[in-house]
């Protein structure tokens, strides 16, 4: 196990990935800690106040944990392309009485400064970043506060940038991962490099400890990632059906549906590349969606929330990595321990 994480008391080298938008709950993070692993609260799409409440809840259980943030890396949307896309998908939203044509372009930073202030005023053991590498000064003050800093990267070039900025650990994410890619260049779809190959490329580029992520769903894949040079692995999709996960009911059902036979990388829901189970929305709009994050996220969010409440799996983002067939409905601790059983 990589020494920085070992110092936190982590002995199970299968970590619980942060899954923003609901799936990651304080209960899931606590369950990971009880399995001698480490879970990450998902700070994305939350205010600093809401994140502080979750931190307090996890701390009250005495659990070791980390926090993940979306570092600002907006993809400016072309206004005309945005309006054209809004008109195209408007009938989908009208199914739930939502008029998205009245939605303006929202370009925000997900409460970035407020969350950094929170994590400096009330430091946590580990902070991970995705979407962008924060300024070196931000990383330095977090480390000075006693926080281990982890950066998501999807290539050797990104790994070098993160190392230069002063991070402690790299989370190496392959394109097989479910949900948003952590790529620093979201205007482009990341190349489908197998995780072992990507780990090898990053190991040759930088000397930092590595956590492998993306498509890991079986004990054999855990063992393979560790043999390829990772000190630990991070899993998300296999936890989406866990008892403690806050995944929506239609999302959980879709993961178990044998008719769902493949995943696709799409910008249709958020304007940023993300891997999801194929559904009607991805079929119709993947080729039509412009790049534009977070503008498209805000555009489609009301429709997705309404669809989830109505148990409609065809108009929600069914985030899933390529190993989604291995997601099971059982306690998260059992899932993590089983994945580590081959070590």
Automatic annotation (TrEMBL):
Protein name: Propionate 3-nitronate monooxygenase
Entry-linked Gene3D superfamilies: Aldolase class I
Catalytic activity field: 3 propionate 3-nitronate + 3 O2 + H2O = 3 3-oxopropanoate + 2 nitrate + nitrite + H2O2 + 3 H(+)
Keywords, alphabetical: Detoxification, Flavoprotein, FMN, Monooxygenase, Oxidoreductase, Signal
InterPro entries, per the entry: Aldolase_TIM, NMO
Cofactor field: FMN
Gene Ontology MF term list: oxidoreductase activity
Residues spanning the signal sequence: 1-16
Stated family: Belongs to the nitronate monooxygenase family. NMO class I subfamily.
């Amino acid at each position: 196990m990589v020494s920085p994480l070992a110092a936190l008391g982590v002995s199970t080298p299968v970590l619980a990935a942060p899954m923003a938008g609901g799936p990651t709950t304080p209960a899931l993070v606590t369950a990971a800690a009880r399995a001698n692993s480490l879970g990450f609260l998902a700070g994305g799409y939350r205010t600093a106040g809401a994140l502080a409440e979750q931190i307090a809840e996890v701390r009250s259980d005495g659990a070791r944990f980390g926090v993940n943030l979306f570092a600002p890396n907006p993809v400016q949307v072309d206004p005309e392309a945005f309006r054209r896309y809004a008109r195209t998908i408007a009938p989908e939203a009208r199914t739930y009485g939502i008029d998205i044509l009245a939605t303006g372009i929202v370009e925000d930073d997900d409460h970035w400064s407020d969350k950094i202030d929170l994590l400096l005023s009330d430091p946590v053991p580990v902070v991970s970043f995705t979407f962008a590498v924060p300024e070196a000064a931000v990383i330095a003050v977090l480390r000075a506060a006693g926080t281990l800093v982890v950066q998501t990267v999807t290539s050797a070039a990104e790994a070098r940038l993160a190392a230069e900025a002063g991070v402690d650990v790299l989370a190496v994410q392959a394109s097989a991962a479910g949900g948003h890619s952590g790529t620093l260049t979201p205007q482009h779809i990341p190349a489908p490099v197998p995780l072992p190959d990507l780990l090898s490329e990053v190991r040759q580029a930088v000397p930092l400890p590595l956590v492998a992520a993306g498509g890991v769903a079986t004990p054999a894949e855990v063992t393979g990632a560790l043999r390829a040079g990772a000190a630990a692995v991070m899993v998300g999709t296999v936890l989406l059906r866990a008892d403690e996960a806050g995944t929506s009911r239609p999302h959980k059902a879709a993961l178990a549906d044998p008719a769902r036979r493949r995943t696709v990388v799409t910008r249709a829901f958020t304007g940023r590349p993300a891997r999801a189970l194929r559904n009607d929305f991805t079929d119709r709009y993947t080729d039509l969606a412009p790049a534009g994050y977070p503008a498209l996220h805000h555009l489609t969010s009301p429709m997705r929330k309404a669809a989830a409440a109505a148990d409609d799996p065809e108009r929600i983002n069914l985030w899933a990595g390529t190993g989604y067939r291995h997601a099971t409905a059982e306690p998260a601790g059992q899932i993590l321990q089983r994945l580590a059983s081959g070590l």
